[in-house]
Amino acid sequence: MPECIELNIENEIAELWLNRPNALNALSAQLVGEVNDALAEVERARPRVFILAGRGERAFCAGADIKEFKPVATTVEARARHYSRNIFDRIEKLPMPTIAAVHGYTLGGGLELALCCDMRIAAENARFGFPETGLGTFPGAGGTQRAPRLIGRSQAMWMIFTGERLNASDALRMGLVNKVVSTDALMGEVCKIASMISANAPLGVQYAKEAILRGEKVPLEEGIRIETDLNMFMDTTDDYAEAARAFIEKRKPVFTGR
Ligand code: CO8
User: In CATH, what class is 5-198?
Assistant: First the structure.
């Protein structure tokens, strides 16, 4: 049984909870290992939506476990350590929509985890920052790449160079999060969004995500070709026909994911 996380998959919605509230959900080696195992389970179960959240009142995640920090002698050892942390890329590559439900401290590797998700919904008490440069390093789990792509180079540089913490309304203004809700309402809001997504055609949602992610890496013209190819496939699906039938019959469509 995992000790540092919880994974619940119900009604095709997966909730992965970081669960070390006494350490503000810091990313210990054990927690990272358990997240890796949980992601394998999510990849196998293929839920419609994946939610990442943190237990306890004070933090989504306060970043790497500083108590486990150990300098290494060579970059060869450092490289081995980096590859053991592939949870970041793995979350980004999940085929279903992913939502980070963030509250309290969301720092360093915790913010980098949230940046791997497709959407971020924040509680009013959320506080965001990259403290790494004050710890003798810099964000190395995607922060220097994903933050500028999301909020722009200059804002990301400001956050990374200064380590200053943003509150939830600053984060919303910058586009770091999609929405801010009261702290008590956080999980209710995230579950509502997850239900809205899972009421839509599964293949429509999945291929939309694929088109967006693949399109980001190529020039617009090629992106349009990717979109067209995936979109033409949609026209052949049962759910496309079902949606038109349901519209004419004035009822809600029943999607099967085929
Ligand atoms: N690592 C380990 N333990 C932590 C961490 C952490 N990052 N953050 C908090 N804790 C522990 C504290 O040690 C304390 O434990 P204890 O009660 O046993 O002393 C408990 O959580 C509560 O914390 P505080 O008493 O410090 O609470 P405060 O309200 O005084 O302060 C802060 C809250 C401001 C969040 C403070 O705890 C803090 O500054 N924490 C460190 C935040 C930080 O610098 N994080 C970035 C680390 S670098 C990073 O994330 C790089 C990511 C690389 C990728 C990693 C992949 C695995």
Answer: alpha beta
Q: How far apart are alpha carbons 158 and 46 in whole angstroms?
A: 38
SS3 140: coil
Q: Give φ, ψ of 133 to 5 degrees.
A: -65, -25
- The answer to whether 222 is a known catalytic residue is no
**CB burial readout 110-141, b (16+ within 10 A) else e:** bbbbbbbbbbbbbbebbbbbbbbeeeeeebbb
CA distance 199 to 168: 29
Q: Which residues line ligand 1 (CB under 6 A)?
A: 23-24, 26-27, 32, 62-67, 85, 105, 107-109, 131-132, 135, 140-141
Domains of the chain by residue range:
5-198, 202-249
Question: Which of 4, 20, 22, 24 is the pocket-test mutation for ligand 1 (most atoms within 8 Å of CB)?
Answer: 24
Give catalytic status of residue 10 as yes or no.
no
Mean pLDDT of the chain: 96
Task: Out of 132, 164, 189, 242, pick the active-site residue.
Answer: 132
pTM of structure: 0.95
Q: Which atom of ligand 1 is nearest to the CA of 64?
A: 50
The structural architecture, per CATH, of the domain 202-249 is Orthogonal Bundle (1.10)
CA distances from 169 to 56, 81, 147, 181 (A): 22, 35, 17, 10
ipTM of the complex: 0.98
Q: Which atom of ligand 1 is nearest to the CA of 131?
A: 44
Categorize the per-residue pLDDT at 73 as very low, low, confident or very high, splitting at 50, 70 and 90.
confident
Tally Cβ neighbours within 10 Å of residue 99.
Answer: 25
